[in-house]
Design goal:
With 287 residues, the protein is α+β, with helices and mostly antiparallel strands. It has three domains: 52 residues, no CATH class; 58 residues, 5' to 3' exonuclease, C-terminal subdomain (DNA polymerase, domain 1); 154 residues, DNA polymerase, Y-family, little finger domain (Dna Ligase, domain 1), CATH 3.30.1490.
Length: 287
């Protein structure tokens, strides 16, 4: 936003306006990070999920960023975190204060990147995205409290799948891959995916996500974050070819589901997102 304050106002003022507009018009919560680069903005956005605004400037990283465990850092997965821990690097601050050559030797080119990120440095440009560049549509939410009840987790998943379905239908993007993400209370992350017949219906996205959730749920390990995404969009003439899985589907049932959900989209676009939704979300309340 540098240089645009005259048009949009101060960063914090603009962030508040964006957050309130998304909440009022779409009925969705969001978290926003304000920082000097993409990495710090991403880390800041994670700090007040599911709703809030965080400023994270380079001058603040010693207080706000460095005390966090390395597995909480964007770009560091479970295996990398485990290896860093074995090297005696437990926090982001430990990584920032480590010998750069040691990190590069252990992790190659990626080591140089995580070393600089830990020090609040990121020179990657902010690039505009257009619909044709869309490779996946995903939604995730950090829960207000750790969750061990799979029934409640399914309601969260349904609300996320509903949002993905609406977005996919709006952009006419049918996908074949559903992917879920579970982040546990100890910051461990599990990701699983499955292939389904090409779809953009909330019902089919949710059902695929539920199957994955049921296969990998463990009530002994409370979950802090749940995410789901749709990808594998058609890019060429193969979009018009039926797969073996498509032929197994009941076309009339599939078409009826699409028609119902498109009708719901029309009502929501005209009267607001909360005017019509799924019965389960009405009974339990949207997360």
């Amino acid at each position: 936003m540098t240089g645009g304050e005259g048009l949009f106002g101060a960063p914090l003022t603009t962030a508040k306006r964006i957050m309130n507009e998304i909440k009022d018009k779409l009925g969705l919560w969001c978290s926003i990070g304000i920082a000097e680069n993409k990495f710090l903005a991403k880390m800041a956005a994670e700090m007040k999920k599911p709703l809030g605004i965080t400023e994270l400037w380079k001058a603040d990283i010693g207080l706000k960023l460095w005390p966090l465990p390395v597995q909480a850092m964007y770009g560091i997965g479970a295996k990398t975190a485990e290896k860093l821990n074995r090297m005696g690097i437990k926090t982001i601050g430990d990584l920032a204060k480590s010998d750069r050559n040691r990190i590069i030797q252990a992790f190659g080119k990626g080591g140089d990147e995580i070393y600089h990120h830990a020090r609040g440095m990121d020179d990657s440009p902010v690039l505009a995205r257009v619909v044709d560049d869309m490779k996946s549509i995903g939604r995730s939410t950090t829960l207000p409290e750790d969750l061990s009840d799979i029934a409640q987790a399914k309601l969260v998943l349904m609300a996320l799948a509903d949002d993905i379905g609406m977005t996919a239908r709006r952009h006419q993007k049918k996908g074949r891959t559903v992917h879920i993400t579970l982040k546990y209370a100890d910051f461990r992350v599990v990701t699983k995916q499955t292939t389904i017949p090409a779809t953009y219906t909330t019902r089919e996205i949710f059902q695929a996500g539920c199957r994955l959730l049921e296969q990998h749920w463990n009530h002994l390990h409370p979950v802090r974050l749940i995410g789901i995404s749709l990808s594998g969009f058609h890019e060429d003439s193969s979009a018009n070819q039926l797969s073996f899985f498509d032929k197994m589907e009941n076309p009339s049932k599939k078409n009826k589901t699409e028609q119902i959900e498109k009708a719901m989209d029309i009502i929501r676009n005209k009267h607001g997102p909360e005017t019509i939704t799924f019965a389960a979300l009405v009974r339990k309340g949207k997360p």
